[in-house]
Design a protein that fits this description.
Low-confidence stretches: 214-221
Structural class: alpha+beta
Radius of gyration: 23 Å
Number of domains: 2
Shape: globular
Distance between the termini: 50 Å
CATH architecture of the largest domain: Alpha-Beta Complex
Order of helices and strands: HEHEEHEHEHEHHHEEEHHEEEEEEEE
CATH superfamily of the largest domain: Creatinase/methionine aminopeptidase superfamily
CATH class of the largest domain: Alpha Beta
Number of helices: 10
Strand order of the largest sheet: 4-3-2-1-5-6
Length: 383
């Protein structure tokens, strides 16, 4: 049997464990229980600890301030896989009748102090209630925001993987652009680009796309591959694929099959200015809300947004989950720190109903920020 390999260095995993334990000490948490379900957008918290995504069922890991880290898998095969990674010291199989029992018993070994919970909001009622009932009598603390803060500051290795992910998404986007053929079924161009991404080393693929000739276009939440490509098709394409290591990158663009209207070109010019303004504003000490306020102010100044419509999100953090804190929305008090990964994607909705959007991916540094994205902000015309 082949021994499974980690996708990040063991030194990186050890750094993460140490960062979590430091945060536990600062918040007086003696043991941390991380629960995770395979559905939803919060799977990354478990991979952060064991470098492996869930596939089918709920599972847990327990991190005490001192001593062995425990992992509780759904079945024997999964437990053996985690054990073979040699990233945790204790593995066990959950009891299907009382899945929280073994998890709670392991957490209690840390002593009678506080037990932190993270990711448990994604669990099914059976798993959640079993865990909570098994921890009856113990002081519990929500560790979610603390864990978000730990994960928000990316290491050099994480930033390198994130950069690779952005490049992979951009190259896949270019492959898709080049593969669109008027009169052909839309699904075929997405299939060719998906094959390109897989061959380039992509772990997970997330496409969002919606096209039409004249209908109002809002940010899509599904892949619409129906019908054939026609001259005049306009739409929004979003790629959020992961590179080896599990980190996401993002490309989002409004695309045109054929000519681009003057109104759309002017909107893209504004989007480009906003992205440059926001990128130059990213630095340690600024808050996510202040960045959002800058974008709102610019959209209002140039007549693309009324004051009454301000306060909508203009981006978010990203890492092992597609969407991570902070949220770039007015009022978000999260302070940007060196190593924070941000995706900025302002949107302009024209009078015609057409939505113009573009994404830039950034990472905050000690003195400012670095733009990971390399694609131009100009309209993407499919020739």
């Amino acid at each position: 049997m082949t021994t499974p390999q980690t996708r990040v260095s063991r030194g990186e995993i050890q750094r993460r464990h140490a960062s979590i334990r430091k945060a536990m000490e600062e918040t007086e948490v003696d043991a941390l229980v991380i629960g995770c379900a395979p559905r939803g957008d919060r799977r990354g918290v478990l991979r952060y600890v064991v470098d492996s995504y869930l596939q089918l069922f709920e599972e847990f890991t327990v991190i005490p301030q001192e001593g062995p880290i425990g992992y509780f898998a759904h079945d024997k095969a999964r437990a053996e896989y985690i054990d073979d990674l040699h990233l945790v010291e204790h593995t066990d199989i959950l009891d299907p009748a009382e899945p929280g029992g073994k998890v709670a018993a392991f957490a209690k070994r840390a002593g009678p102090g506080r037990i932190g919970l993270c990711g448990t909001d994604s669990l099914s009622a059976k798993y959640y209630l079993s865990l909570i009932n098994s921890l009856d009598g113990y002081a519990l603390a929500d560790f979610t925001k603390t864990m978000d803060g730990v994960r928000m500051v990316k290491s050099d290795e994480e930033i390198n993987i994130s950069n690779n992910a952005v490049k992979l998404n951009e190259e896949t986007f270019k492959a898709w652009l080049a593969s669109v053929r008027e009169g052909e079924e839309k699904a075929k161009s997405f299939a060719r680009a998906s094959s390109f991404a897989a061959e380039a080393g992509c772990e997970d693929q997330y496409w969002l796309a919606s096209f039409g000739a004249s209908s109002p276009l809002c940010l899509p939440h599904a892949l619409d591959g129906s019908g054939t490509w026609k001259k005049g098709d306009i739409g929004v394409v979003v790629l959020e694929h992961t590179a080896a290591g599990g980190y996401f990158g993002e490309v989002m663009r409004t695309c045109f099959l054929g000519s681009v209207s003057r109104e759309a070109e002017e909107a893209f010019t504004t989007i480009s200015r906003i992205l440059q303004l926001a990128g130059s504003a990213i630095k340690p000490g600024i808050t996510a809300g202040e960045i959002a306020d800058l974008i709102d102010g610019y959209l209002v100044e140039y007549g693309f947004l009324s004051i009454d419509d301000t306060g909508k999100p203009h981006g978010h953090g990203q890492g092992l989950d597609i969407t991570e804190p902070p949220l770039l929305v007015s009022g978000d008090p999260t302070v940007i720190k060196p190593g924070t990964r941000l995706n900025i994607h302002p949107r302009i909705k024209l009078a015609s109903g057409l939505e113009i959007t573009s994404t830039d991916c950034y990472v905050a540094t000690e003195s400012g920020s670095i733009r990971l994205s390399t694609l131009p902000h100009e309209p993407m015309a499919i020739r």
